[in-house]
Amino acid sequence: MAQNTGLVINKIKGKIYFSRGYQRASELKEAIGFVEGKLPAKYLGIALSVNYLKARNYSSNIDKCREKIEGWMATTLSFTGRIELIKTVILGSCSIRYNLYISSVLKVLEAMFAKFLWRGKIHAWAWDKICKPKSEGGLAVTRIQEINNAAGVKLVCRCCNNPDCEKIG
C-alpha cells in the first residue's frame, strides 16, 4: 500500500507479463498473487506487444476517433469552425497526445481530419499547406506527426529523469 495515498494494487484486475525466456515465472506469480497476462494486450487503450505494432493494433483508437468526427459531420459548422474544432477538440481528444503511433496510422487519422474539414468534397488545399503556420500561408493546424514526436521525446525524458524507469531499447 502506498503510505501517502492509501492506494493499493488490485490483484483481481492486475496482471503480470513475462518475457519469453523467463524461467521463474510460476514462483513470482505465486509470491505476488497476480494472474499471468498474455500479449498482445491493451493498457488504458494503448496496445502492448513484444513485437513491432501494426496498424491493426490501433484499430480501436482509429474507430473512436472516427466516431467522434462522424458525430460532428452532421453539424453545420463553417470552414473556420471546422478548423478550430480540429485544432482543439479532435486533436486533443482522439488519444493522439498520449499514444505513439506508427506512420500508417498517422496518415489514416490525417486523412479523416481532411475529409471532415472538406466535408468529403474535393480538397482545395493539401493537408501539408493547412498545417503550415499562418505566417507561411497555412492555417496552423498541428501535424499529428509533430504531436507523436513530442510524445516520444516526453517518454524518453521521463525515463531519463526517473531512476526507477526501465531503460528503453
Describe it for me?
The structure is a single chain. With 169 residues, this protein is mainly alpha-helical. It folds into two domains: 38 residues, no CATH class; 102 residues, no CATH class. It contains six helices and four strands; from the N terminus they run E-H-E-E-E-H-H-H-H-H. The strands form two sheets. Strands 1-2 form a two-stranded parallel sheet. A two-stranded antiparallel sheet has the order 3-4. Helix 1 links the parallel strand 1 and strand 2. Helix 2 packs parallel to helix 4. The protein is elongated, with a radius of gyration of 21 Å. The two termini are 31 Å apart.
Quickly describe the structure.
The protein is built from 6 helices and 4 strands, in the order βαβββααααα. The protein has helices at residues 25-32, 59-73, 79-93, 103-117, 127-130, 144-161, and strands at 15-16, 35-36, 41-43, 46-48.
SSE diagram, text form:
Elements: E1 15-16, H1 25-32, E2 35-36, E3 41-43, E4 46-48, H2 59-73, H3 79-93, H4 103-117, H5 127-130, H6 144-161
Helix pairs in contact: 2-4
Beta strands, count: 4
The total domain count is 2
> Tell me about the biggest sheet?
2 strands, parallel
Pairing-aware structural class of the strands and helices? mainly alpha
Rounded to the nearest angstrom, the radius of gyration is 21 Å
Output the keywords.
169 residues; mainly alpha; two-stranded parallel sheet; two-stranded antiparallel sheet
